Amino acid sequence: MKNSIILLLILTCTLINAHSHAEERVRGKHVLITKLGSFELDKATQSSSRNFTTKSDEVFGLEYEWHLWQGLSIGGEFFYYENNFTTPTKRTAEISSHLFNVKYHFNHTGAFQPFIGYGRGFTYIEPTGESLIDSHIGSAYQYTAGFTYRFKYVGIYAEYKVLNSRPEDELGTVTVSEIDTSGEGVLIGVSVLF
Whole-number mean pLDDT of the chain? Predict the structure, then answer.
């Protein structure tokens, strides 16, 4: 009986110590995430009479997270993708979303860390060619869900993203309509804790 109590005390102390070390590894730490993947626009035909390809090219993101407390993190994200469009000649739109994100990480002290998140910011479109006179900017928001599988300071990252963005389509100083650059995608990447 005495040996069982001692063994139980040693096991309890070991678990508490392991939990506190895992908490130290995550809390108050900074994470940099690089990710690549696929993204697809919700619709091709725009109200501005421009036809976009729905499948995006050159899809990548760079994200910073600051882990605050008990699985909560805040940070910023740069998300970039390109879509071809015709109006009537073929051009390319370089689209970037700049977002402030809030995430909640379940099992934040473990190796496998699922998360959900919400982001708010703006989307900027830089067209190529002469068919669009101006660049375009508009508000954006997103929902994300995914996971990180962490090996101490480096982790494998996967994310499902739903982005809603509709920059105004302007001709000179007159707003003609909106360009719907909303869509969804799957990204994978590497996260580095520092």
Answer: 80
Distance CA 69, CA 35 (A): 24
- Smallest CA-to-CA distance from 109 within 11, 24, 17, 191 is with 24
Q: What is the token pair recorded at 30?
A: 């900074």
CB 103 within 8 A of CB 64: no
CB 175 within 8 A of CB 168: yes
Which fold, 28-193? Answer: Porin (2.40.160)
Q: What is the dihedral sign for C-alpha 169, 50, 42, 56?
A: negative
- Is the model more confident about 25 or about 35? 35
For residue 7, which amino acid is it? L
- Are 66 and 30 in contact by the 8 Å Cβ rule? The answer is yes
